[in-house]
Design a protein that fits this description.
There is one protein chain. This protein has 329 residues and is of the alpha/beta class. It has 16 helices and 10 strands. The protein has helices spanning 2-33, 50-57, 60-63, 75-83, 93-101, 145-156, 173-182, 195-200, 209-212, 224-229, 231-250, 252-263, 267-280, 289-303, 311-314, 318-327, and strands spanning 36-42, 66-72, 89-90, 106-113, 118-122, 135-139, 165-169, 187-191, 204-208, 218-223. A 5-stranded mixed β-sheet has the order 7-6-8-5-9, sandwiched between helices. α2 (50-57) crosses α11, α11 packs across α16 (318-327) and α12 (252-263) crosses α13 (267-280).
Length: 329
Amino acid sequence: MRTASAVRWRVFLKAFICFLLLSSDALIEAQESRLEDVTVAYSNPGISTLPVNIAQEKGFFAAEKLTVNLVLMQTFVAGRAVMGGNVDYNSLAGNMITLAAGGAPVKVVFVLIERPLFAFVSRPELKLAKDLKNKKVAVSTRGSIDDYFVREIVAASGLNPEKDITSLSMGGTSNRLTALRTGAVDATGISVPFNLPLEREGYNRIAVAADTMHAVTNGLGVSEQKLKSQPDQIKRMIRAMLKSIEYIKSHRAESVQRAMVLYKFDAATAELAYDMLLKSLPARGIPSEKAFETVINLSREQLGLRGEVPLSKVANLDLLKEVVSELNR
């Protein structure tokens, strides 16, 4: 009897141990397959969000164990939300540079767009920038990227942007479009591809920022606390974004079609937006220092800063460089 009882006990013990091992494996597998929820702030749906949308649809985030949720926020709210831990990432990288230059504990870790997606459009009778002498020009706000772009184009024409034009701060794209169409202003800098409908109506495209200007506008910015505590998650975000960008580059027709569906563009508008997006991407994934310098200088002007602001104060690209190197192996 003792022998039979001992045998049964050994069988039970082995079965119990196998159960524990299987349960442990299942738990580990469940933990490994669980996706992390992260939030990304953005200000407007449009072509600059296409890499995030494609990464969601094609599983690039899921492959990195991430579930990414886009949260629509006003620019001035988004940066503070990152600092407060209410969102994980801010796609408005230019805004993050300004905050960091002013001393906020944030850093840009990834750059999506380093050539701004802006077009400078004027009334039909005004063909060149020099024709804007004594004219009214709408910008979003004084010291903004589009304001800098407008002043740069006006100055290149031989005019003095501080004296020869009247610059009016009018807020968002819709406000500036209305002002131009109603004749309240003579020209404005607006986001691509919203210039295309105007051009079809006879308005004139004076310049496109991507042709002449380097400035970081979109990417990923994080709090310094997140950079210290979750570098692995940040690397996975960057890896998914870079894979999405490569997919977009190699799948033009599909990407244009998705832009049409996602942003309600017609075919010509989606194609223009796609081409401008590709033109605005950093070469080989690494942004230029010049693109940062432009925004840093604008930030210094906005904030009244006298001293130099080093790149290291506003950005940490070490993780980006690591991921690019890993993907190129």
